[in-house]
Design a protein that fits this description.
3 helices; two-stranded parallel sheet; alpha+beta
């Protein structure tokens, strides 16, 4: 996702947040927030009944 953010910014986009359908709790949300972006998701691990 951060590679896509970099490409969008290089093309002139003002990226301020990332939204995903499912957060699988892999640490991506923390990495996105550490990059200074907002992070939103529709479903988390509990919603998806993931281990």
């Amino acid at each position: 996702v951060l590679t896509a953010v970099d490409a969008l910014r290089a093309a002139g986009a003002a990226v301020v947040a990332v939204a995903v359908v499912a957060d699988r709790a892999t640490g991506a949300g923390a990495a996105i927030e550490a990059a200074g972006l907002g992070y939103r998701y529709a479903y988390g691990p509990d919603d998806l009944e993931l281990p």
